[in-house]
Amino acid sequence: MLFVVEGYLPSCEPPKARNICAGEIRVAEEKQDLLQLYRFCFLMLADTVKAQEIFHAILREAAQLAADGEAPRDRLWFFRNARWRCLEAGEQGLQAEEVDFGQDELAELAPSQIQKLEPEQFAIWIAAAPDPQRTALALFYLNEFSYRDLLSVTELKPPELSKLLGNGRREFQAWLDSTSPVSQV
Amino acid sequence: MSAVQLSKRDRMLLHCAPIRDEQVDDRALRSAVHHARKTEAYALQQNFDKAATELVQAIPIPKEIIEWVPTETFIAPPRATWKKYAQNPVFLATGIAAIVIAVILIFQLIDRLNRFPGEPTARRLLTTASSNKSMMLDPVKANSGALGDFFFMKHRLVHYDVPPEFADLNTLGCRVFEDEEGQRVAQVWVVEKKMQFFLFPAERDPKTGKAKEFSGWRHIEQEHWAGVVKEDGGVCFMAALRGTDKDLASYVSKPKS
Description:
The complex is a heterodimer. By secondary structure, chain A is an all-alpha fold. In chain A, 66% of the residues lie in helices and 0% in strands. Helices cover 40% and strands 17% of the residues of chain B. Chain B is elongated. At the A-B interface, helix 1, helix 2, helix 4, helix 5 and helix 7 of A face helix 1, helix 3 and helix 4 of B.
């Protein structure tokens, strides 16, 4: 009988090979996370320059921590850090004008309406939302996080997150209806 | 689409439902998604979210960002948790072995604490009690407390006294015999519960020859027989009956003067 200890492959493949492979996978995943980190910053600010500045600042801080032997424990650290930096940066610049489009029920043709948008338009809409709704929507639509991760980074309780996302969808639908009505799709 | 009635909690959770199933890492949310899978509202939400997600993934990544992404990891390797250790067969086997050893040691310790000088003789006499009949004894109808004088006068056995706890019981008969080690043992049969008393010399220190003393009542059980043993003046007294410790507990729980 062949027993396989978790973390090791059967004898055909030495443990070292698996470790290297796991390490490579981790680096690739982290690279993907960092690209998403930039997108998150962009969604929060709708400003390429500011998003890049914050992205670079976070990487510098992570590198410094890693050099000091206090590397971040998980990828959520990057997004928590980015959230507060983006909110701080958002307060310093021009504030988005508050326009209430109301709320509409989700339309069957909503995907077609969304497809007509540019990513920058969506970022502008998200960046104009008040926090914590802004963070919740930006994190949710990155399609990168589990439910628990979302609760952890947004520091919200399930009913609060639910309300912000539900309202966010309907508000976005109302905005879609006003900017690209179904009749034009 | 079927008309499924969703609970308030399910509806609340569904607003947070991630687009990918593998991101549903909560039992309640998983259940809500399962209930809502065939509803039109959930399908609309999923299509809406998918379209929005695709739009987000279309956000162009500037060249400066790609250049800045490091080739090595910045995230500390995950710490091994106690669960991880527990699942490791080596730690698991060691843990089980340690628990087994600990249990054995505890049993041995309890056994050692229950031991007392003269216990082997007491156990032997318990076997004798289980195999004897009252007919083998000389009929003596008296108060068992009075037998101390009887043993001294007739058999020259000093301090072969029945303790006050059992002194009021009436006897059926008694005898004195020598056990395998040549010790003189007095055996008494009483009316109550067909109980038997044994009086025998306490275990002695082989160097000093002094009797090994112990205080209070000690309990032994063997093959459906129970006994309580007490040492006094170099002589051990044992009351034995067919049953358990509980049957003898009422006699020895309240010391009599």
